[in-house]
């Protein structure tokens, strides 16, 4: 593979006129080469605040069960503010229950990696190893440590859950986790995300992602009726724009600092965070541009290129929190879509 | 939206995972090889206007995820495609063996009349070849497909593959074998004339109103 090059992305958005992107030739603080960065209007979190947050999180991590059971809303609030980067990996492992899984199955990961595995699965995995975040310092060299670890984690998963085996959308998730923690920890986080948070997304048939697409569309009607009608008129099915968003939990969609903030919330609040991000993206990308989207093609292009300001971490989180959706709205839409699908299958 | 064209064709790029579908599309549109690309999850798309038999044809190309299980998701954008590039990797026999399945899907989900061009990609990797040209052209013949070997890396035959498939569709329109007005034909008229009525009558003459 060629050495990573610093290369500006094609200028594709009419909203990118301001000086919001900078291209660098050294890896950024997240390990990426040549990335564009959203210039933020929000001042960075002051050092004292970071230190005080770290203290709070350390206290929570050493007293996890108590906070999880008794201080639910405090924990949620702190996840929404963003977990201090130094403690993120540990916090994520606690939040998603990976730590508990690992404690329970102490030697399992090792033994899974030592089993032969399904040859077809392993072959599929190998084809994708060099295609995960090739601009990241950990994954940019062929057969480098990152790619080897990625293989082990994905293989272990496919042995643990032969029914799912390996789905191509799991590779970005595993790679994303590996950027933050050692293989065994990353593996258990992957297991937790695939089995608990996004159960049914990666199996053969991929039913669940289609149901969630319909739910997203149903919620859009409530959040942005104009955008909903536009998509309906152009017969744009949800799977056309949300498949990658949901299957990869936005790891391939959003600027990196925003991905991290979304995951802080996702691992605490669950899949509804993915819905909220999707609704913000749809509304923010299309509402102001409906007139410029005469056909399906322009519409999908607009969804693919949200206004950069919208993607800035603090802005996106604020938009999400401002959505007027209750727990009941989610429940209702979910039951509605499941019933609809069953009815369709019967006919 | 500023570009002018006579027709718009909906195209698919299908085939097994890792055969280079996205790289073919990238090479076609950007005229360069995508060195560090990630695999497609769900669908990508791109478009380009190409000159075909004196007409300007806009190709709207849908590039699909290759893994088998994505088919239940991707089938919704097969609908109404006029043409398809069916891609295998000349260095991987399994991708060649899967062709019959992909072809059946294209014909049942898009349209039985879909114009398909078989593409043997990665022809630059001659030393690793597992599928011969002869074998593939026999498959193409038996299944009434056009056939080309390409290299998304060097660019060899990439534009030709898309153009050849588009040309076959234009020919079918002009001979009346394909009716662009039929619902789900995957063909739309563009902003250049001739429009509607003259399309089938335009056989043998170049567009009179070309700017």
From TrEMBL, chain A:
Annotated Gene Ontology cellular component terms: plasma membrane
UniProt-listed InterPro entries: Rab-GAP-TBC_dom, Rab-GAP_TBC_sf, Rab_GAP_TBC_domain
Residue span(s) of domain Rab-GAP TBC: 82-270
Database matches in Pfam families: RabGAP-TBC
GO MF terms held by the record: GTPase activator activity; small GTPase binding
Keywords: GTPase activation
Protein name: Rab-GAP TBC domain-containing protein
Automatic annotation (TrEMBL), chain B:
PROSITE patterns to which the protein is assigned, alphabetical: RAB, RAS, RHO
Gene Ontology MF annotations: GTP binding; GTPase activity
Pfam family for this entry, one: Ras
Record's subcellular location: Endomembrane system
Record-linked InterPro entries: P-loop_NTPase, Rab4, Rab_GTPases_membrane_traffic, Small_GTP-bd, Small_GTPase
SUPFAM superfamilies, per database record: P-loop containing nucleoside triphosphate hydrolases
Gene Ontology annotations for the cellular component aspect, listed alphabetically: endomembrane system
SMART domains for this protein: ARF, RAB, RAN, RAS, RHO
GO biological process: protein transport; Rab protein signal transduction
Keyword terms of this UniProt record: GTP-binding, Lipoprotein, Membrane, Methylation, Nucleotide-binding, Prenylation, Protein transport, Transport
Family statement: Belongs to the small GTPase superfamily. Rab family.
Identification of the protein by name: Ras-related protein Rab-4B
Protein's organism: Cloeon dipterum
